[in-house]
Amino acid sequence: MSGTQHGARGRGRSGGARGGRPDRRESAERSEAAISPARLVAYDVLRYVEDREAYANLALPGRIREAGLDTRDAGLATELASGALRWRGRYDRIIELAADREIERIDARTRNVLRLGVHQLLGMRTAPHAAVNESVELQRRVGNRAAAGFVNGVLRSIGRASNEEWDARIAESAAGVDDARAALASHPAWVIRAMQDALRIEGREDELDALLVADNAAPRVNVAILPGAGVTPIEAAERAAEAEVVVSGPSPLGVEIGGGDPARAIAASGARRGFARVQDQGSQLAALALTRARPVQPGERWLDLCAGPGGKTAVLGAEALIGGASVRANEVAAHRAQLVRNSVAGVAGAVDVVSFDGRDDEAYGGERFDRILVDAPCSGLGALRRRPEARWRKQPSDLPGLTRLQAELLQEACAHLAPGGILAYVTCSPHLAETRVTVDRLLRSRSDLVEVDARAVVGEVAREPLDLPGGGLSVQLWPHRHGTDAMFISLIERRAVDS
Ligand SMILES: C[S@@+](CC[C@H](N)C(=O)[O-])C[C@H]1O[C@@H](n2cnc3c(N)ncnc32)[C@H](O)[C@@H]1O
């Protein structure tokens, strides 16, 4: 994203995404004078994320629409909000050093104005005077007017040093190596430790910095061209070349969009309606690991136990249609079960959707299944690229509840796996407690289960040879190495005859 000399100034409309709305006093103040609408939108999104636990990727489009931003200002608002959220750890440390004050001792509104200002100064090519003046103006509109001078002073001080100088100051003032790395890479220290542990068991601890860099880069948009689309990924890319669609990445279904509007690219691809879908290529591979682990026999019954919002269900459905199988898709949250129905509209004949807790018998409808996907609820630490605020919201204390749920879902799923059937356990997290530890515990608890070589399956399915180091049977994908989310995939078979 280029600098912020957009010059477009207009009245920011009040209103909020996901139920968030500025209060009356703030709205009245805003109506006093014009202010850069993109900055107001970005500021609102930061507030909704902090005050209401909103998701930036959901709050942004709503606020952009409400404010009537044009494409250029929408891009600016997105860059401002995403950048300030993603780099919050590093920016807060810089603000602390410049203000000589702990970040918690700066009031919440001023804090967010400063974060947006620092992103313009250090993360974008905004002219310093514009970044400072606009931030001071924003502070006057949305925050404590008396603190406008404080904002001015702190941002001027930050603008006087380069990124390299700030990094040196962060390193000098840090409480140790881990603290410095956490602040510089803008990741919580516990998240870095979890990533480090997962890389270590692959013998690739030296890739940690590359991973942290990849986590801080906005991912390209990937699309799955599902089997049965009427076009292959190569043909889809040729047809949508003007929309910058190219064949790229490890999934045999995947194409990548270089920029622009995904909906336009999908429309141009020539794929049948519902057969081209935005989806990370790690998710595509995870679904294909189950469907292509062995040839499909007509009449097979498959279960997608934790299906919402239905991205992988759509892949299962398309593969099932071709192989003569059928899918039961279960999702505990009713509103997310509806998203699954929408998602599988193109392959509805092969999929029925139900809504139960996956730990209850009703989820299985009295059946035993030939293939089961347990794409378990998890910390989501593998998708930090696309959820800029997630790293600050997750806590280590979230882990025990999640790992218990994962284990319970797995146990129940295995009880409903037909003898000889195969189960894929998938998480969008590389945290060992959610991946290997969970799988190893399951294997120890049941002698009728055996882990299958998921590396061989995924290696066979992938469009290109995959670098999968370490000695185990499961697959850990990584953003820096494979260009995907950090998906974990383990394949588990139930022996044909109970031993
Ligand atoms: C990682 S997401 C699944 C993503 C999905 N497979 C896809 O590719 O679009 C996990 C899902 O599990 C659901 N879930 C959480 N607890 C569950 C439970 N006890 N039983 C069934 N589903 C559950 C969540 O609501 C969430 O939609």
Entry keywords:
12% strand, 499 residues, disordered N terminus, 8-stranded mixed sheet, alpha/beta
Task: Produce a short descriptive summary.
The protein is an alpha/beta fold. The chain contains 22 helices and 12 strands. Strands 5, 6, 7, 8, 9, 10, 11 and 12 form an 8-stranded mixed beta sheet that branches. A 4-stranded antiparallel beta sheet has the order 2-3-1-4, covered by helices on one side.
Describe the structure.
It is a single chain. This protein has 499 residues and is an alpha/beta fold. Helix content is 48%, strand content 12%. The protein has helices spanning 24-32, 37-52, 56-67, 71-86, 88-99, 108-123, 128-142, 148-159, 163-173, 177-185, 189-200, 208-215, 233-239, 262-268, 281-291, 311-323, 334-343, 390-393, 399-415, 436-445, 454-461, 479-482; strands spanning 221-225, 245-246, 254-257, 276-278, 301-304, 326-330, 351-354, 369-375, 417-427, 449-452, 475-476, 488-494. The strands form two sheets. Strands 5, 6, 7, 8, 9, 10, 11 and 12 form an eight-stranded mixed β-sheet that branches. β6 (326-330), α17 and β7 form a beta-alpha-beta unit. The longest helix has 17 residues, at 399-415. S-adenosylmethionine is lined by residues 283, 306-312, 330-333, 336, 357-359, 375, 377, 428. GO terms for molecular function: methyltransferase activity.
